[in-house]
Amino acid sequence: MSHVILVLAAARPDATRPRVQWPKRMQLPENVCPTTPEAATWDPSSLNCLQHHPNRINICRSEWPRDAIMGEQYPSVTQCALLAAGFKVLLFPAYKSTDFEVHRNWLAITNSLPPWEWYYEKTSEWTLDYPPFFAYFEWVISQVAKLVDPSMVKIYNLNYDSWQTVYFQRFTVILTELLLVFALQLFIDSCHGAAKRAAHTAAISVILSPGLLIIDHIHFQYNGFLYGVLILSLVLAREKSGFLPSGLLFAGLLCLKHIYLYLAPAYFVFLLRAYCLSSKSVFRTQWLNCVKLGAGIAAIFGVAFGPFAAFGQIPQLLARLFPFSRGLCHAYWAPNIWAMYSFVDRVLIFVSPRLGLPVKSEALQSVTRGLVGDTAFAVLPDITPRMCFILTLLFQLIPLIKLFQRPTWDLFVGSVTLCGYASFLFGWHVHEKAILLVIMPFSLIALKDRRYLSAFRPLAVSGHVSLFPLLFTPAEFPIKTVYTIFWLVLFLMAFDRLAPASNRPRFFLMDRFSMVYIAVSIPLIAYCSLIHQMVFGETYEFLPLMFTSSYSAIGVVGSWIGFMVVYFTS
């Protein structure tokens, strides 16, 4: 039954049941008839469609009675965060990538040198290449780090990893992730009724995300903290009073990590239309709002870059932030359009003699390996940074047109997601870890209805499976596979139960694509992780990576196309 009728005896309540204090009478607005559909959806406190009788109360829609009896959602975000933190502590001795040494070196640079030398220091190959706010963030951490282990913050102590260093750095990742927990709780509190239950589930899925577990707590980075800033900024934009703080917070995020520039077009269009221009006419400018926003952003960038501009270091700083000398693809192909392009080029190498296609011999050993300056393809035309920029900008502008016409919060988060998609799919030298740029904002609206969920499913699978090559040691194999599969099964089932039906026809092809795509993931993981090693040993070592990348690219591209359809037809 789509509706559950709960009958509460008013005369003699059952002593064995928890007593619920219902209001004596719910007053509908005068212009709403109790028998109309409007009355069924009118809901001042998430209590839907009350029909009062002398001896009972009939409550339509199953959400409210359960929430009324249970009270607060269980488990809470705090409880899940504590559980996740406990599990992450157990991973302190796990594998750590070179990113661990990168951040240790940045602690040493910011602690040992004055700021005007930070972006010139190159004792280690892992030079400082994040914006100034993140450098200040590292400096703050280094003040505690030198008390824990003074050798940790010495520049010439390369690859230093004492147990104090490992435990301290991993603990800072967990501690700074509290901002993400706070932002997600704020997101839940901003929702009401059935949407609050969906937001609660989505928030827990983010806290327990296998992406954050793999990238931050094993591989090692600070993405949880940074995405906490992003989500907090998105949630603040839900109310008009939060437009200015949202924009300023995002400006601060850009000064923490410049990869979020990919999302800046959505923020620019939304704040321009919703905050700087009149809601009645795009030809009327709210000048005071423009001054407040412009002055705030200028102040933030001034604090971040001003000290370096005073020493004439902006060119050096920009050269560190935007190293275009790197190749089109990373050493492991990120699952995007260029991974599919590279895969086709590899196939054409073998069939080119039959097709009579010319092959560039100098590209056979170096194609798309992600090395500096290495962007050559053997058969297909080469791709330049300018081509990537134009394609990225084009596919970002398309959804922004609708956002400018209708600057609602849902469309804003959707356009942020699509900007993330475009940058990931068409960007230059994209890392596989950047898929979180898409997954995180999409998680906030994935349960809007079943059409959104249909587009989210293949992204959830492909985005997390694509991270598996980051952990290639045997000890971490059961962690990444079992945890990710458990997360996918648990939350995709939960999402499927909570996502409401759409008032528009569902995209039939997208549903079938999701089913087939998810079914293929299990044998693919088994082959790449176990079977290939058993059959081929150390030979053809590129095959598992190529299959994983190509499979994940199909999922991300399919999800992007599906969400574009949903976005423009909603």
Automatic annotation (TrEMBL):
Keyword Endoplasmic reticulum set for record: yes
Membrane-topology descriptor: Multi-pass membrane protein
Reaction(s) catalysed by this chain's protein: an alpha-D-Glc-(1->3)-alpha-D-Man-(1->2)-alpha-D-Man-(1->2)-alpha-D-Man-(1->3)-[alpha-D-Man-(1->2)-alpha-D-Man-(1->3)-[alpha-D-Man-(1->2)-alpha-D-Man-(1->6)]-alpha-D-Man-(1->6)]-beta-D-Man-(1->4)-beta-D-GlcNAc-(1->4)-alpha-D-GlcNAc-diphospho-di-trans,poly-cis-dolichol + a di-trans,poly-cis-dolichyl beta-D-glucosyl phosphate = an alpha-D-Glc-(1->3)-alpha-D-Glc-(1->3)-alpha-D-Man-(1->2)-alpha-D-Man-(1->2)-alpha-D-Man-(1->3)-[alpha-D-Man-(1->2)-alpha-D-Man-(1->3)-[alpha-D-Man-(1->2)-alpha-D-Man-(1->6)]-alpha-D-Man-(1->6)]-beta-D-Man-(1->4)-beta-D-GlcNAc-(1->4)-alpha-D-GlcNAc-diphospho-di-trans,poly-cis-dolichol + a di-trans,poly-cis-dolichyl phosphate + H(+)
GO BP field: protein N-linked glycosylation
UniProt KW Membrane keyword: yes
Compartments reported by the entry: Endoplasmic reticulum membrane
Pathway(s): Protein modification; protein glycosylation
Sequence intervals crossing the membrane: 167-188, 194-215, 222-239, 259-278, 290-311, 387-405, 411-431, 477-495, 516-536, 542-568
Broad class of the protein's primary localization: endoplasmic reticulum
Entry keywords, A to Z: Endoplasmic reticulum, Glycosyltransferase, Membrane, Transferase, Transmembrane, Transmembrane helix
Coiled coil: none
GO molecular function, one term: dolichyl pyrophosphate Glc1Man9GlcNAc2 alpha-1,3-glucosyltransferase activity
GO cellular component terms, semicolon-separated: endoplasmic reticulum membrane
Entry's EC annotation: 2.4.1.-
Role summary: Dolichyl pyrophosphate Glc1Man9GlcNAc2 alpha-1,3-glucosyltransferase that operates in the biosynthetic pathway of dolichol-linked oligosaccharides, the glycan precursors employed in protein asparagine (N)-glycosylation. The assembly of dolichol-linked oligosaccharides begins on the cytosolic side of the endoplasmic reticulum membrane and finishes in its lumen. The sequential addition of sugars to dolichol pyrophosphate produces dolichol-linked oligosaccharides containing fourteen sugars, including two GlcNAcs, nine mannoses and three glucoses.
Family: Belongs to the ALG6/ALG8 glucosyltransferase family.
Protein name: Alpha-1,3-glucosyltransferase
Native species: Zalerion maritima
